[in-house]
Design goal:
Chain lengths: 246, 246
DNA sequence: CGCAGAAGTTAGCCATGACTAACTTCAGGT
DNA sequence: ACCTGAAGTTAGTCATGGCTAACTTCTGCG
């Protein structure tokens, strides 16, 4: 433990006063890129291609290319031109810290302020870069140092350790298999609204009844109701598979 | 009512996805300058000098000069080179909206998260530029559409109307006069800590016992304790004067 | 009234991070 | 092995907001 990267909060000097444009050293760009690369890397730490990063962030590959070079100079990624980038340890800590902020904020907005779960992502996407260490900790305490955000994604702990995920895409199950719905991507508000309307939440037990072939829908039963989930949705939802005996 | 400037929240398109660097159009600079000018203007809407703005924001006057020109182009200030700037109606709305964000956030951090009142200012200074309209409203509702922030400063209402202030600096009272402590500048953390230690909070009734001449301290009695308040503090604290009969 | 110093402005630069257009490298298919 | 299209990079530009240095305007004192 104690592996936390020290970024020393913000606004080193100028504690007093109205100074808004203080010695900023924003790092916001770095945080977003680190997060994107982290998510794209997956468990196999294959290098991530420039275009993949560019697509995820909605920028041109020229912009991504330039930024990867800069992250490389800052020691956040190992970057081989034409061959992609992978996060260094330092870069991974930046990503995890940002993800911790993001998910704590999502949960906070949902739990404490009652913001609908399909809208917390967008708000968190902005705020994650602007909360101090102190506020992060106050939020975490208020929530009881939680493990999971409203979409079931794990929240890195204070030392930025993250529980690895043993879930699989729902799409992967075959008829007859059971699972517990653990998480769903937070970034598609429409999917989240669809699930919310049907009261399908992380934690729900489900049974796969049927799977239409060739990328078709999956039919599942949840709490004695049957749902047909389209292939995109079934690909975004993750479940922890249950062995038969439960 | 209904005078609210419409800035349409944020991120017009791209609701979905991870896009962090979306069509940003930040406006953060404008908000900070508008706020600074608003505070410097006071009730007499004398034009505010470039240097005053620069000092308050901790930037050079060259920077302030350039920015005032830009705010003028955007229609937020009336700016006469060499003769200062004053907010237009549009600029005042930007300032009031930012101030509403600031004070709601301050109160929220103090009330809901228990952040000490000498630290809420710094945090709010950053976050005020990054909360959506929706979050603003959720916070206001959570707090019961409050009128005053933790330092006793009035919070503009949803239509950005602000209750005018009938308070005077404590320094202005003469021995024998009574008042209610209404507010204190939020930007000096040391003062706030000093007051907090002595349990002097907005709302407290006080009686001026003594005033040392030539910019000296003011001696006041609050809840049967006597305090000597230095001239800077007594200048920053504002009180609503009480007429004798109460 | 005139001039010196204060106040304010302009010019030119830096950093961040995006963009387009043009060029280079890489990899797959024959 | 080679060539072509896809992937990636470089060059040059823009916008935001800082900065210093040099210049201009304003103002108050003698």
């Amino acid at each position: 433990m104690g592996a936390r990267a020290k970024r020393g909060g913000r606004a080193p000097a100028a504690t007093r006063g109205h100074h808004a444009h203080r010695e900023r050293q924003t790092n916001e760009g770095a945080e977003n890129y680190a997060k994107a690369i982290y998510h794209l890397q997956g468990r196999d730490s294959e290098p991530v291609h420039t275009t993949a990063v560019a697509d995820r962030l909605g920028v041109t590959s020229a912009s991504a290319s330039a930024m990867l070079k800069r992250l490389s100079d800052e020691g956040l990624v190992d970057y081989e031109p034409y061959h992609g980038a992978r996060l260094t340890t330092k870069g991974e800590l930046v990503a995890l810290e940002t993800i911790r902020h993001h998910r704590l904020i999502e949960l906070f907005l949902a739990e404490v302020l009652g913001m609908p779960w399909d809208r917390v992502h967008e708000e968190a996407e902005v705020l994650e870069h602007h909360i101090s260490e102190e506020l992060e900790e106050l939020i975490a305490v208020k929530l009881g140092q939680p493990d999971l955000d409203p979409h079931g994604d794990p929240i890195p702990d204070r030392d930025l350790a993250i529980t690895s995920d043993d879930s699989v895409p729902l799409m992967r199950l075959v008829p007859g298999e059971r699972g517990i719905f653990t998480r769903v991507s937070d970034s598609d508000a429409e999917m989240l609204r669809y699930l919310a309307e049907r009261e399908i939440q992380p934690g729900a037990r489900l049974l796969v009844k049927e799977r239409e072939p060739f990328g078709g829908a999956v039919v599942v039963q949840i709490a004695r109701r049957t749902h047909r989930l389209g292939p995109q949705l079934a690909g975004s939802m993750r479940v922890r598979q249950q062995v038969g005996d439960e």
